[in-house]
Specification:
Its cofactor is Zn(2+). The chain is α+β, with helices and mostly antiparallel strands and 156 residues long. 13% of the residues lie in helices and 31% in strands. The strands form 2 sheets. A 5-stranded antiparallel β-sheet has the order 2-3-1-4-5, with helices on one face. A 4-stranded antiparallel β-sheet has the order 6-7-8-9, with helices on one face. The structure holds cytidine-5'-triphosphate and zinc ion. Zinc ion binds next to loops.
């Protein structure tokens, strides 16, 4: 049994089938929901814990989505804002698979370039592409670097 479970009370209840995105840096849960396109209007069953105590991080956020498994593209984008996240696939209440997110080499069509002169932000049919660096992302077309608040540049 995990520490979370033995820790007097379980803060967010377990899910039956779906995905638990764990070890999200404190404060990023709402951005996780935005990346997954979850705003609650479609009746999705979602639990969110914010700034809960964690062994690995000082404080973590956790997002539990019932009835949904994530695409590789969604996980790639999550890795940009939650680089230490663990993706747990839950089936019939047990964790069937667990993996850490990995930062991809590049992401296409998910971030918008803050440079208004960039070809990707003009009226051209060019899909954005950002190379993923250790601590930032860089527009492959104009070289603009985005280091802080990458979530603000996500096209949703
Ligand atoms: N979880 C859940 N519903 C389930 C099973 C697990 O919500 N039916 C959650 C747990 O609460 C935990 C996460 O999924 O937040 C991972 O579960 P588990 O691997 O059992 O916990 P730990 O061993 O603590 O995970 P880690 O080692 O990744 O910290
Ligand atoms: Zn650009």
């Amino acid at each position: 049994m995990s520490n979370d479970d033995t820790d007097h009370e379980l803060r967010v209840s377990k899910i039956r089938n779906g995905t638990v995105i764990d070890h999200v840096h404190g404060g990023q849960a709402l951005n996780v929901l935005a990346i997954l396109g979850i705003d609650g209007t479609e009746g999705e069953e979602v639990s969110v814990g914010m700034n809960v105590p964690s062994d690995r991080l000082a404080r973590k956020d956790i997002v539990k989505v019932e009835g949904r498994e994530l695409s590789q593209e969604e996980v790639d984008v999550l890795s940009l804002i939650a680089p230490d996240a663990t993706i747990n696939i839950v089936r019939d209440y047990s964790v069937e698979a667990k993996h850490r997110v990995e930062r991809p080499d590049a992401v296409e069509g998910v971030l918008s370039c803050p440079n208004s002169n960039c070809i990707t932000t003009e009226d051209e049919p060019v899909i954005s592409r950002f190379d993923v660096l250790d601590d930032a992302v860089r527009c492959a077309y104009c070289g603009t670097i985005v280091r802080d608040d990458i979530a603000a540049h996500i096209d949703t």
